[in-house]
Amino acid sequence: MADTTQTTGTSLFRWNPGAWGVVAGILALVAVLAPDTLWETIAFTVNALLHTAPFIVFAVLAVAYLKATGAETLLARAFEGNPVRMIMMAALLGGLSPFCSCEVIPFIAALLAVGAPLGAVMAFWLASPLMDPAMFAITSGTLGFDFALAKTLAAVSIGMMGGFAVMLAANTPVFADPLREAPAIGGCCSAKKPFSGAPVWSFWQMADRRETFGRTALDNALFLTKWLTLAYLIEALMLRYIPAEMIAGVLGGDGVMPVLLGALVGAPAYLNGYAAVPLVDALLTQGMSQGAAMSFVIAGGVSCIPAAIAVWALVKPRVFAAYLGFALIGAMIAGLAWQAVA
Questions:
Q1: Taking Cα atoms as reference points, which of 69, 98, 65 lies closest to residue 217?
Q2: C-alpha–C-alpha distance, residues 103 and 186, integer Å
């Protein structure tokens, strides 16, 4: 389940003209300051979007199908049974489910309130912002299938790492009494009863679910097109104006330092998971190491505003600090592992 940047609205990928305004503003600046490069910049952006179009279509249809069938109800099953099994299932579903961070706040709040193990919740929270079907498709199309698969494995592994660490330290002062006094359960998504009922895989036989499919597909298509347009536009400018030697000097090469810097830069530089993909592609072209790229997307994904708010809204600061600590350590390990095999 990857992140989104919406803070208002009633759907996962609701239309927001802000990014389009930034796109228009950037193009206006290019037209004024470097008019001879305007059409070249537009052509780069359009060609990049066309190259990614098949993956966008797949992502749109996959997310719309999962939403229309009500597949999010399967999440509840990750928090039943043996604690070890719970952590493993929570990390796996967190890394694969197509739902935004704030949408699961009521669900997680209810689980914590009735005593669900914090380890399983932590596993879900760590994995959920990093990957989903749409993210996998976009990442595969731009950075390659191997990178997308490695990021998925990293997401699930980091979730398990955090989950088992919390389980082992559950009785320590850090994780005792984790909930805030009155946790906020609002968010950018519509308020509804958390994940009840069973999936209906033949959704096309029901009018309301067909409507959900169409609405989700449209919202998703607008969201992805908007953010990827902005990201590819920024990529074009980065390739033109940022010296490759500078990127290679700071984030290139082997060793721990580029991976650490990638993780530290990832948090403040992250827009959202989809927009980050073209930016990482540009940085790789200019000399960023593979390990730094992996640590960038992992650390940035977990620490992005929607994902962080989902955790901060429910738990005390010490638990939130542990969440960020697990993210940074996991990003470092994932970056070093990917650098060793890439």
A1: 65
A2: 9
